[in-house]
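Worked example 3 (structure in, sequence out).
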Protein backbone atom coordinates (compact mmCIF):
# COMPACT_ATOMS: atom_id res chain seq x y z
CA UNK A 1 0.00 0.00 0.00
CA UNK A 2 1.27 3.45 -0.93
CA UNK A 3 2.22 5.68 2.00
CA UNK A 4 -0.12 8.71 1.99
CA UNK A 5 1.39 12.15 1.61
CA UNK A 6 -1.22 13.75 3.91
CA UNK A 7 -2.83 12.42 7.08
CA UNK A 8 -6.08 14.12 8.02
CA UNK A 9 -6.67 13.82 11.77
CA UNK A 10 -10.18 14.44 13.13
CA UNK A 11 -10.73 14.24 16.87
CA UNK A 12 -14.29 14.02 18.13
CA UNK A 13 -16.26 13.71 21.33
CA UNK A 14 -20.07 13.62 21.31
CA UNK A 15 -20.29 15.53 18.03
CA UNK A 16 -22.37 12.93 16.22
CA UNK A 17 -24.66 15.63 14.87
CA UNK A 18 -21.71 17.28 13.07
CA UNK A 19 -19.15 14.55 12.39
CA UNK A 20 -20.58 13.34 9.07
CA UNK A 21 -20.30 16.78 7.49
CA UNK A 22 -16.69 17.08 8.67
CA UNK A 23 -15.72 13.68 7.26
CA UNK A 24 -17.47 14.33 3.95
CA UNK A 25 -15.65 17.64 3.56
CA UNK A 26 -12.36 15.72 3.85
CA UNK A 27 -13.50 12.99 1.45
CA UNK A 28 -14.54 15.37 -1.36
CA UNK A 29 -11.24 17.26 -1.50
CA UNK A 30 -9.88 17.89 -5.02
CA UNK A 31 -6.79 15.97 -3.98
CA UNK A 32 -5.69 12.46 -5.04
CA UNK A 33 -7.36 9.84 -2.85
CA UNK A 34 -4.23 7.69 -2.91
CA UNK A 35 -2.21 10.54 -1.42
CA UNK A 36 -4.30 11.05 1.70
CA UNK A 37 -5.74 9.14 4.64
CA UNK A 38 -8.50 10.21 7.02
CA UNK A 39 -8.07 9.26 10.66
CA UNK A 40 -10.99 9.78 13.05
CA UNK A 41 -10.23 9.49 16.76
CA UNK A 42 -13.37 9.06 18.86
CA UNK A 43 -12.48 10.13 22.39
CA UNK A 44 -15.05 7.92 24.10
CA UNK A 45 -18.24 9.50 22.73
CA UNK A 46 -21.48 8.47 24.43
CA UNK A 47 -23.76 9.62 21.60
CA UNK A 48 -24.29 8.03 18.15
CA UNK A 49 -20.89 9.07 16.75
CA UNK A 50 -19.69 5.48 16.20
CA UNK A 51 -22.90 4.46 14.44
CA UNK A 52 -22.76 7.47 12.13
CA UNK A 53 -19.13 6.80 11.17
CA UNK A 54 -19.70 3.14 10.27
CA UNK A 55 -21.34 4.19 7.01
CA UNK A 56 -17.96 5.49 5.72
CA UNK A 57 -16.43 2.02 5.94
CA UNK A 58 -12.88 1.71 4.62
CA UNK A 59 -12.88 5.33 3.41
CA UNK A 60 -11.69 6.35 6.88
CA UNK A 61 -9.57 4.86 9.65
CA UNK A 62 -11.76 4.95 12.72
CA UNK A 63 -10.35 4.54 16.23
CA UNK A 64 -12.26 4.60 19.50
CA UNK A 65 -10.50 5.21 22.81
CA UNK A 66 -11.40 6.07 26.42
CA UNK A 67 -12.26 9.70 27.07
CA UNK A 68 -9.17 11.65 28.19
CA UNK A 69 -9.53 14.96 26.36
CA UNK A 70 -8.29 16.67 23.21
CA UNK A 71 -4.55 16.32 23.86
CA UNK A 72 -4.92 12.59 24.42
CA UNK A 73 -6.94 12.26 21.19
CA UNK A 74 -4.34 14.29 19.25
CA UNK A 75 -1.48 12.17 20.56
CA UNK A 76 -3.31 8.98 19.61
CA UNK A 77 -4.10 10.28 16.11
CA UNK A 78 -0.56 11.51 15.51
CA UNK A 79 0.79 8.05 16.38
CA UNK A 80 -1.46 6.55 13.70
CA UNK A 81 -0.60 9.18 11.07
CA UNK A 82 1.62 7.92 8.22
CA UNK A 83 1.72 11.05 6.07
CA UNK A 84 4.50 13.58 5.69
CA UNK A 85 1.91 16.29 6.32
CA UNK A 86 -0.64 16.18 9.15
CA UNK A 87 -3.74 18.35 8.66
CA UNK A 88 -6.17 18.86 11.55
CA UNK A 89 -9.95 19.08 11.28
CA UNK A 90 -12.37 19.62 14.15
CA UNK A 91 -15.41 17.35 14.15
CA UNK A 92 -17.81 20.31 14.04
CA UNK A 93 -16.07 22.20 11.21
CA UNK A 94 -15.79 21.62 7.46
CA UNK A 95 -13.15 22.25 4.82
CA UNK A 96 -13.71 23.86 1.45
CA UNK A 97 -12.89 21.41 -1.32
CA UNK A 98 -9.58 23.00 -2.37
CA UNK A 99 -8.13 23.04 1.16
CA UNK A 100 -5.69 20.11 0.94
CA UNK A 101 -4.51 21.04 -2.55
CA UNK A 102 -3.72 24.63 -1.56
CA UNK A 103 -2.00 23.62 1.66
CA UNK A 104 0.18 21.02 -0.06
CA UNK A 105 1.04 23.42 -2.89
CA UNK A 106 2.21 25.90 -0.25
CA UNK A 107 4.34 23.30 1.54
CA UNK A 108 5.95 22.29 -1.76
CA UNK A 109 6.57 25.91 -2.75
CA UNK A 110 8.00 26.77 0.69
CA UNK A 111 10.09 23.74 1.75
CA UNK A 112 11.42 25.55 4.84
CA UNK A 113 7.90 26.05 6.24
CA UNK A 114 6.89 23.56 8.91
CA UNK A 115 3.33 24.79 9.50
CA UNK A 116 0.81 26.26 7.09
CA UNK A 117 -2.29 28.05 8.32
CA UNK A 118 -5.13 29.83 6.54
CA UNK A 119 -8.34 31.78 7.01
CA UNK A 120 -11.78 30.39 7.90
CA UNK A 121 -15.32 31.64 7.67
CA UNK A 122 -17.41 31.80 10.84
CA UNK A 123 -20.42 29.63 10.09
CA UNK A 124 -23.65 29.03 11.96
CA UNK A 125 -24.45 25.88 9.98
CA UNK A 126 -27.56 27.41 8.38
CA UNK A 127 -25.77 29.02 5.46
CA UNK A 128 -25.04 32.23 7.37
CA UNK A 129 -21.34 33.01 7.26
CA UNK A 130 -19.14 35.91 8.32
CA UNK A 131 -15.45 36.73 8.21
CA UNK A 132 -13.20 35.83 11.12
CA UNK A 133 -11.11 38.95 11.75
CA UNK A 134 -8.60 37.10 13.95
CA UNK A 135 -6.15 36.55 11.09
CA UNK A 136 -2.78 38.07 10.36
CA UNK A 137 -0.52 36.97 7.54
CA UNK A 138 2.76 36.03 9.22
CA UNK A 139 5.48 34.21 7.30
CA UNK A 140 8.94 33.07 8.32
CA UNK A 141 10.62 32.57 11.66
CA UNK A 142 8.28 34.44 13.98
CA UNK A 143 10.40 34.97 17.14
CA UNK A 144 13.05 36.76 15.11
CA UNK A 145 11.04 39.99 15.25
CA UNK A 146 9.12 41.31 18.26
CA UNK A 147 6.41 42.99 16.21
CA UNK A 148 5.85 39.81 14.20
CA UNK A 149 5.67 37.76 17.40
CA UNK A 150 3.00 40.09 18.80
CA UNK A 151 0.96 39.97 15.58
CA UNK A 152 1.08 36.17 15.24
CA UNK A 153 -2.50 34.88 15.67
CA UNK A 154 -3.84 31.82 17.44
CA UNK A 155 -5.64 29.95 14.66
CA UNK A 156 -8.47 27.40 14.89
CA UNK A 157 -7.71 23.67 14.69
CA UNK A 158 -9.23 23.21 11.24
CA UNK A 159 -6.86 25.78 9.73
CA UNK A 160 -3.63 24.04 10.80
CA UNK A 161 -1.30 21.67 8.93
CA UNK A 162 2.15 20.54 10.06
CA UNK A 163 5.09 18.61 8.69
CA UNK A 164 5.22 15.34 10.59
CA UNK A 165 8.90 15.68 11.50
CA UNK A 166 8.34 19.03 13.21
CA UNK A 167 5.38 17.76 15.19
CA UNK A 168 7.67 15.24 16.85
CA UNK A 169 9.53 18.09 18.58
CA UNK A 170 6.27 19.24 20.18
CA UNK A 171 4.87 15.82 21.06
CA UNK A 172 3.42 14.46 23.13
CA UNK A 173 0.96 17.25 23.80
CA UNK A 174 0.58 17.39 27.61
CA UNK A 175 -2.57 15.44 28.45
CA UNK A 176 -3.46 17.95 31.13
CA UNK A 177 -4.86 19.89 28.16
CA UNK A 178 -8.34 18.41 27.84
CA UNK A 179 -8.94 21.31 25.44
CA UNK A 180 -6.66 23.91 23.83
CA UNK A 181 -4.26 21.27 22.50
CA UNK A 182 -4.39 23.05 19.15
CA UNK A 183 -3.38 26.35 20.79
CA UNK A 184 -0.42 24.57 22.42
CA UNK A 185 0.86 23.44 19.00
CA UNK A 186 0.18 26.81 17.35
CA UNK A 187 1.83 28.80 20.12
CA UNK A 188 5.03 26.73 20.16
CA UNK A 189 5.65 25.62 16.57
CA UNK A 190 6.98 29.10 15.77
CA UNK A 191 9.92 28.49 18.12
CA UNK A 192 10.83 25.34 16.17
CA UNK A 193 10.67 26.43 12.53
CA UNK A 194 9.26 28.97 10.03
CA UNK A 195 5.54 29.08 9.27
CA UNK A 196 3.57 30.27 6.24
CA UNK A 197 0.09 31.82 6.05
CA UNK A 198 -2.30 31.29 3.15
CA UNK A 199 -4.63 34.33 3.05
CA UNK A 200 -7.49 32.32 1.55
CA UNK A 201 -10.69 31.02 3.14
CA UNK A 202 -10.28 27.26 3.09
CA UNK A 203 -12.53 26.17 5.96
CA UNK A 204 -15.73 27.01 7.82
CA UNK A 205 -15.60 27.24 11.60
CA UNK A 206 -18.96 26.28 13.03
CA UNK A 207 -20.22 28.67 15.74
CA UNK A 208 -22.58 27.01 18.21
CA UNK A 209 -23.41 26.89 21.91
CA UNK A 210 -20.76 24.30 22.77
CA UNK A 211 -17.84 26.42 21.51
CA UNK A 212 -15.54 27.27 24.40
CA UNK A 213 -13.63 30.17 22.86
CA UNK A 214 -15.82 31.46 20.00
CA UNK A 215 -19.32 32.33 21.10
CA UNK A 216 -22.25 33.03 18.79
CA UNK A 217 -23.43 36.15 20.58
CA UNK A 218 -25.60 34.33 23.10
CA UNK A 219 -25.13 34.91 26.82
CA UNK A 220 -22.11 33.05 28.21
CA UNK A 221 -22.79 31.08 31.35
CA UNK A 222 -20.63 31.29 34.43
CA UNK A 223 -19.78 27.61 34.03
CA UNK A 224 -18.54 28.17 30.45
CA UNK A 225 -16.33 31.03 31.56
CA UNK A 226 -14.89 29.02 34.44
CA UNK A 227 -14.18 26.02 32.17
CA UNK A 228 -12.30 28.08 29.63
CA UNK A 229 -10.35 29.88 32.34
CA UNK A 230 -9.28 26.49 33.72
CA UNK A 231 -8.28 25.35 30.23
CA UNK A 232 -6.38 28.58 29.56
CA UNK A 233 -4.52 28.36 32.88
CA UNK A 234 -3.38 24.82 32.02
CA UNK A 235 -2.31 26.01 28.59
CA UNK A 236 -0.23 28.86 30.03
CA UNK A 237 1.55 26.46 32.37
CA UNK A 238 2.38 23.93 29.66
CA UNK A 239 3.60 26.57 27.20
CA UNK A 240 5.95 27.99 29.81
CA UNK A 241 7.16 24.50 30.71
CA UNK A 242 8.02 23.73 27.08
CA UNK A 243 9.80 27.06 26.59
CA UNK A 244 11.96 26.51 29.67
CA UNK A 245 12.68 22.90 28.69
CA UNK A 246 13.97 24.00 25.28
CA UNK A 247 16.14 26.84 26.54
CA UNK A 248 13.85 29.86 26.11
CA UNK A 249 13.43 32.46 28.84
CA UNK A 250 9.71 33.26 29.41
CA UNK A 251 10.68 36.36 31.43
CA UNK A 252 12.59 37.97 28.56
CA UNK A 253 10.85 41.15 27.32
CA UNK A 254 9.70 39.69 24.00
CA UNK A 255 8.43 36.39 25.39
CA UNK A 256 6.81 38.12 28.33
CA UNK A 257 4.89 40.29 25.87
CA UNK A 258 4.01 37.25 23.72
CA UNK A 259 2.65 35.32 26.71
CA UNK A 260 0.65 38.32 27.91
CA UNK A 261 -2.15 37.57 25.42
CA UNK A 262 -3.30 34.67 27.63
CA UNK A 263 -2.91 36.72 30.81
CA UNK A 264 -5.09 39.48 29.37
CA UNK A 265 -7.71 36.99 28.19
CA UNK A 266 -7.83 35.53 31.70
CA UNK A 267 -8.40 39.00 33.13
CA UNK A 268 -11.23 39.70 30.70
CA UNK A 269 -13.00 36.49 31.74
CA UNK A 270 -12.34 37.15 35.42
CA UNK A 271 -14.00 40.57 35.04
CA UNK A 272 -17.07 38.86 33.59
CA UNK A 273 -17.34 36.84 36.78
CA UNK A 274 -16.65 39.76 39.11
CA UNK A 275 -16.51 43.38 38.01
CA UNK A 276 -13.18 45.06 38.83
CA UNK A 277 -12.73 48.36 40.63
CA UNK A 278 -11.74 51.42 38.62
CA UNK A 279 -8.02 51.24 39.38
CA UNK A 280 -7.75 47.53 38.63
CA UNK A 281 -9.63 48.01 35.36
CA UNK A 282 -7.43 50.97 34.44
CA UNK A 283 -4.26 48.90 35.04
CA UNK A 284 -5.70 46.16 32.81
CA UNK A 285 -6.53 48.55 29.96
CA UNK A 286 -3.32 50.59 30.08
CA UNK A 287 -1.28 47.44 29.45
CA UNK A 288 -2.68 47.07 25.93
CA UNK A 289 -1.07 50.16 24.37
CA UNK A 290 2.05 49.67 26.49
CA UNK A 291 2.49 46.09 25.30
CA UNK A 292 1.11 46.23 21.77
CA UNK A 293 1.65 49.91 20.92
CA UNK A 294 4.29 49.17 18.28
CA UNK A 295 1.81 47.16 16.19
CA UNK A 296 -1.05 49.64 16.65
CA UNK A 297 -1.79 52.57 14.40
CA UNK A 298 -1.29 55.99 16.00
CA UNK A 299 -5.06 56.48 16.11
CA UNK A 300 -5.64 53.08 17.73
CA UNK A 301 -2.92 53.73 20.29
CA UNK A 302 -4.39 57.12 21.24
CA UNK A 303 -7.85 55.60 21.55
CA UNK A 304 -6.52 52.76 23.76
CA UNK A 305 -4.96 55.27 26.15
CA UNK A 306 -8.16 57.36 26.09
CA UNK A 307 -10.26 54.30 27.00
CA UNK A 308 -7.92 53.47 29.86
CA UNK A 309 -8.16 56.93 31.39
CA UNK A 310 -11.91 57.09 30.74
CA UNK A 311 -12.29 53.93 32.80
CA UNK A 312 -11.15 55.84 35.88
CA UNK A 313 -14.20 58.06 35.49
CA UNK A 314 -16.77 55.64 34.07
CA UNK A 315 -15.76 52.31 35.63
CA UNK A 316 -16.19 48.82 34.21
CA UNK A 317 -19.95 48.85 33.66
CA UNK A 318 -20.12 52.20 31.83
CA UNK A 319 -16.99 52.21 29.66
CA UNK A 320 -19.16 50.96 26.80
CA UNK A 321 -20.39 54.56 26.48
CA UNK A 322 -16.97 55.54 25.10
CA UNK A 323 -17.15 52.82 22.48
CA UNK A 324 -20.71 53.74 21.56
CA UNK A 325 -19.73 57.40 21.15
CA UNK A 326 -16.80 56.40 18.96
CA UNK A 327 -19.08 54.26 16.81
CA UNK A 328 -21.56 57.11 16.44
CA UNK A 329 -18.77 59.56 15.56
CA UNK A 330 -17.32 57.22 12.91
CA UNK A 331 -20.74 56.76 11.34
CA UNK A 332 -21.22 60.51 11.31
CA UNK A 333 -17.86 61.07 9.61
CA UNK A 334 -18.77 58.43 7.06
CA UNK A 335 -21.91 60.32 6.10
CA UNK A 336 -20.33 63.79 5.89
CA UNK A 337 -18.43 63.33 2.59
CA UNK A 338 -21.64 62.28 0.84
CA UNK A 339 -23.51 65.26 2.25
CA UNK A 340 -20.74 67.67 1.25
CA UNK A 341 -20.60 66.20 -2.25
CA UNK A 342 -24.38 66.55 -2.65
CA UNK A 343 -24.26 70.15 -1.41
CA UNK A 344 -21.47 71.12 -3.79
CA UNK A 345 -23.20 69.42 -6.73
CA UNK A 346 -26.35 71.38 -5.92
CA UNK A 347 -24.30 74.58 -5.69
CA UNK A 348 -22.72 74.06 -9.11
CA UNK A 349 -26.09 73.34 -10.68
CA UNK A 350 -27.58 76.51 -9.20
CA UNK A 351 -24.57 78.65 -10.09
CA UNK A 352 -24.83 77.47 -13.69
CA UNK A 353 -28.26 79.13 -13.93
CA UNK A 354 -28.39 82.91 -14.66
CA UNK A 355 -29.55 84.85 -11.60
CA UNK A 356 -32.44 86.49 -13.45
CA UNK A 357 -33.84 83.00 -14.23
CA UNK A 358 -33.77 81.92 -10.56
CA UNK A 359 -36.73 81.96 -8.24
CA UNK A 360 -36.49 83.69 -4.88
CA UNK A 361 -36.12 80.27 -3.23
CA UNK A 362 -33.26 79.27 -5.57
CA UNK A 363 -31.49 82.63 -5.00
CA UNK A 364 -31.80 82.00 -1.27
CA UNK A 365 -30.32 78.53 -1.75
CA UNK A 366 -27.47 80.00 -3.81
CA UNK A 367 -26.60 82.44 -1.08
CA UNK A 368 -26.76 79.76 1.62
CA UNK A 369 -24.57 77.37 -0.39
CA UNK A 370 -22.00 80.08 -1.14
CA UNK A 371 -21.76 80.84 2.58
CA UNK A 372 -21.45 77.09 3.33
CA UNK A 373 -18.76 76.66 0.66
CA UNK A 374 -16.79 79.64 1.97
CA UNK A 375 -17.02 78.38 5.57
CA UNK A 376 -15.86 74.89 4.58
CA UNK A 377 -12.66 76.38 3.18
Amino acid sequence: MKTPFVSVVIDTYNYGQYIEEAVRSALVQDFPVADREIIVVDDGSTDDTELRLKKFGAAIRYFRKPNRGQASAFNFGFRQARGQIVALLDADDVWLENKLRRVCETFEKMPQAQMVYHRAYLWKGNGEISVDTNFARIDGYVPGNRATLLQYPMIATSCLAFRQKTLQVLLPVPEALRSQADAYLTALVVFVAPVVAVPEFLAKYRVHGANAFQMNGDAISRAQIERRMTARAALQTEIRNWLVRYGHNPTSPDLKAYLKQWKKAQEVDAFRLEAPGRWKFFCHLIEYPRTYGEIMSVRHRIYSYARAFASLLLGYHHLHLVDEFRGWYKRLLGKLPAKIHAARTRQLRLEAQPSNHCSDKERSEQDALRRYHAASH
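Notes: The domain at 6-214 is CATH 3.90.550.10 (Spore Coat Polysaccharide Biosynthesis Protein SpsA; Chain A). Strands lie at 6-12, 36-42, 61-64, 85-90, 94-95, 115-123, 129-131, 160-163, 195-206.
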